[in-house]
Amino acid sequence: MKTSTSEGKHGIQWTSRMQLDDLNFADDLALLSQTQQQMQEKTNSVAAASKSVGLNIHKGKSRVLRYNTACTDLITIDGEDLEDVTSFTYLVSIIDEHGGSDEDVKARIGKAREAYLQLRNIWNSKQLSTNTKVIDNPFDYNNE
């Protein structure tokens, strides 16, 4: 995948000296591009590289998130249009079309509150010492 996503250097400027082409984790891939044309080229390249080694991209699970653009041309894989979305979750972080973190913060607070409330009986228990009361990390990736 490394070759297919960085061939044309069509990522986003991350710092003054660094460009970010994509985000990869296990079987998740988020492609980053400045223009629709660059995104289509990168998508085609990843699809071709995947196909050459016997992998298939699940087009029904593939999404396009546009940030700060008026372009509405569809991104396609093998002639099939990919769905445009206003937000998506990548490694438990919610990314939206406005570039903000409000939805992500709300979701994390909600998960922390839920974990705390599930343990309310333990926190209030007189039978357990304070040293026994332990909480697991509610933001562990495995809990998703």
Please give a structural write-up.
The protein has two domains: 1-99, no CATH class; 101-144, no CATH class. It contains four helices and ten strands, in the order αββββαββββββαα. It is 31% helix and 21% strand. By secondary structure, the protein is of the alpha+beta class. The model has no long low-confidence stretch (mean pLDDT 82).
Strand order of the largest sheet: 1-2
Uncertain residue ranges: none
Termini Cα gap: 25 Å
As a percent range, the share of strand residues is 15-25%
What is the helix/strand order? HEEEEHEEEEEEHH
Q: Roughly what is the average pLDDT, rounded to an integer?
A: 82
Strand count: 10
- Biggest sheet overview: 2 strands, antiparallel
Tell me the radius of gyration: 20 Å
Q: Could you give a short description of this structure?
A:
By secondary structure, the protein is α+β, with helices and mostly antiparallel strands.
List the helices and strands and how they pair.
Blueprint: H1 2-6, E1 12-13, E2 19-20, E3 22-25, E4 28-31, H2 36-52, E5 63-65, E6 76-77, E7 80-81, E8 83-85, E9 87-90, E10 93-96, H3 102-118, H4 120-124
Parallel strand pairs: 5-8
Antiparallel strand pairs: 1-2, 3-4, 6-7, 9-10
